[in-house]
Amino acid sequence: MDRKLTLSLNAAVIDRAKQYARERETSLSRMIEQYLASLTQSKGRGAAPANTPLVDRLSGVVSLPEEATGQDSSYADYLSDKYQ
Q1: What is d(CA 49, CA 42) in angstroms, rounded to the nearest whole number?
Q2: Res 77 pLDDT > 90
Q3: Distance of CA 61 to the CA centre of its chain
Q4: Alpha-carbon distance 22 to 17, whole Å?
Q5: Between these two residues, 61 and 68, which has the higher pLDDT value?
Q6: Euclidean distance between CA atoms 78 and 41, whole angstroms
Q7: CB atoms within 10 A of CB 20
Q8: HEC profile for the chain?
Q9: Do residues 56 and 47 make contact, with C-beta atoms less than 8 angstroms apart?
């Protein structure tokens, strides 16, 4: 069952969002609904939001050898620990 929701947003943001929706042949309501659904799908507090279908399709497409990244694994480990 759909319900109405009134939001107050900056006029320039609304104009850009409408243009974005028009270019993607969707409605602004549908875009906002999908965005809010993706935010609230995650389980548990502090959990990352679910990936969009595009991100899921692209994940793992490219794999580079470690030497091609120009970074050693110790720095990657450091960043991983830092942002956990």
Answers
A1: 5
A2: no
A3: 18
A4: 9
A5: 61
A6: 30
A7: 12
A8: CCCCCCCCCCHHHHHHHHHHHHHCCCCHHHHHHHHHHHHHCCCCCCCCCCCCHHHHHHCCCCCCCHHHCCCCHHHHHHHHHHCC
A9: no
Give residues with Cβ within 8 angstroms of 24, minimum separation 6.
31
* Cα distances (Å, whole numbers) of residue 61 to 1, 56, 64: 38, 10, 10
The pair of structure tokens assigned to 29 is 């309501």
Place of tokens 């899921």: 56
* Spatial separation of the C-alpha atoms in residues 19 and 2, rounded to whole Å: 24
Which amino acid would we find at residue 82? K
Q: What tokens were used for 17? A: 């969002």
Whether the predicted pLDDT of 68 surpasses 60: no
